[in-house]
Amino acid sequence: MGKVLIIGAGGVGTVVAHKVAQNPDVFTEIMIASRTKSKCDAIVKAIGNPNIRTAQVDADNVDELVALFNSFKPEIVINVALPYQDLTIMEACLKSGVNYLDTANYEPKDVAHFEYSWQWAYKKRFEDAGLTAILGCGFDPGVSGIYTAYAAKHYFDEMQYLDIVDCNAGNHHKAFATNFNPEINIREITQNGRYYENGEWVTTQPLEIHKDLTYPNIGPRDSYLLYHEELESLVKNFPTIKRARFWMTFGQEYLTHLRVIQNIGMARIDEVDYNGVKIVPLQFLKAVLPNPQDLGENYEGETSIGCRIRGLKDGKERTYYVYNNCSHQEAYKETGMQGVSYTTGVPAMIGAMMFLKGLWKKPGVWNVEEFNPDPFMEQLNKQGLPWHEVFDKDLEV
Ligand code: NDP
Q: What Pfam family does this protein match (any one) (predicted)?
């Protein structure tokens, strides 16, 4: 049915490649391209399908991307490199007539700033070119938005309160490690918190607000209010929402390490001079921390990510909780990667599948909640991320 190009050969790229290869009726030709070609070759070897092609590409370079796109001629690019590459890849898609999907919004390298404005600015150009761009199609952002769209479509007349709850109750047996790219992860967590209430954004100190939330099959976990990018598009696309927040669990050991990293300046993203060489402390830290891709083997426990929603149906108050629990070990057995990469890579594959099947095809730049959630929800159950629903119970939020 379609030709797909995956850019990025990290934890998420590995999962996307496995899942794409598992669906040969939809993805008839596959290429994986990244900065380091040997990593792409290793993924192909692990999958054991010699028909998957690989290539080296610097995704910061539009001309290199265009040359690659023009030679392979994919219908869609799944961008699972880093958020820094979103705009160059979108630019190359426009130049080569290729559709686009990613899992994280663009961030400039020199400021940790999360907003969709840079990518939304491409809307008209994608529209005019007749190309589709699907933004934020991992788990959160991604499934969190699809869950919300599904709730709005089927269960609420007026959705009023949205809390996205993200728990990782896994144990990788390392003193400190991040579950995805450490640079991106630490930039996100050390930011001010932010949530939406009554038409305004409220800013908090980093990790200032927290409370115990109970996660299915896991129990209570201290959960911290963070800013997360999908809040921006969800309150825009569902204007009845009065309050939208995002919560993520962290253990005390993790937070202590994070505090020390910040206090000693290792979370800095500006350049410092070290013996005449310019280095960015956070990038150096990434080089010495455990590689998130190597955590899988000894990772136990599971993740639990969902949406807790309150609003009105037929004039009565209703609550709704929809979630997925994902076992790190099961994810590892299937793809060689832990649950955080798995829960991101599977939705990215499904998004591309939705596009190639013509179900999510409309020229322009869109967040996932702007498409029909039903076929996507159906695929989540088939592709390894089954979901569960709870109605009219205490949401704790
Ligand atoms: P990794 O760091 O493991 O992998 C990133 C990959 O991109 C690496 O293979 C890297 O190459 C490659 N890359 C980086 N820069 C370039 C470049 N200039 N040109 C070509 N390739 C490049 O990250 P993850 O797999 O953990 O994360 C991938 C993406 O998924 C990130 O954008 C992250 O924010 C997002 N994500 C989204 C989530 C969600 O739920 N929505 C959750 C988790 C992650 P090399 O190997 O040579 O360094």
A: Sacchrp_dh_C
- What is the pTM assigned to this prediction? 0.96
Residue linked to tokens 């009726």:
25
323, HSE (Cβ side, Cα atoms, 13 Å): 26
Instruction: Characterize the bridge pairing of strands 76-79 and 99-102.
Output: parallel
Domain end marker among 76, 109, 133: 133
Answer whether residue 83 is part of any domain.
Answer: yes
Q: Domain of 89?
A: 1-133
- Report the distance separating Cα 368 and Cα 143, nearest Å: 8
Ligand 1 close to Cβ of residue 165 (< 6 A): no
12 CB near ligand 1 (under 6 Å): yes
CA 211 / ligand 1 centre spacing (Å): 31
Same domain, 167 and 214: yes
Closest CA relative to residue 101, chosen from 4, 2, 9: 4
Return the SS3 of 393. coil
Q: pLDDT tens digit string along 314-361?
A: 999 999 999 999 999 999 999 999 999 999 999 999 999 999 999 999
Ligand 1 test: best mutation among 18, 32, 35, most atoms within 8 Å of CB? Answer: 35
Residue 265 belongs to a domain with what CATH number?
3.30.360.10
- Answer whether 132's CB lies under 8 Å from 102's CB: no
